[in-house]
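User: Can you predict the 3D structure for this chain?
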Amino acid sequence: MLIGTIVTFINLLIFALIVSGLIYLFILLVKALRKYLKAEPIRKEKAETARSLGEVLKSHRTACKMTQEFVAEALGVSRQAVSKWESGASDPSTANLIAIAKLYGVSAEEILRKVRKEE
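Assistant: Here is the predicted structure, written as structure tokens:
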């Protein structure tokens, strides 16, 4: 009789732990979903402001009121190379990216931080 009561108590305890665990998981799921839904405007804003490397380079160049020709001469490359970088047809080398950043008065990290990450 005592053993049957103990077994029943243990079974109820296990059941209670399973149920409470499921309730806890459900609560965590609801919290995560609410956080995700609240972050939707932020995700949309980031997607709208995310740009390619070429777009970032062009915006910095125009903000500095420089022409493609001026940038090309300052870097020792052709104007067509600068045009290709800005159109996304090619990317500048690391050395050229650092030189571009210096010319625009920003860090290369700042330029790359504004570039969207391809998924």
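The chain has a mean pLDDT of 90. Residues 37 and 67 are 43 Å apart (CA to CA).
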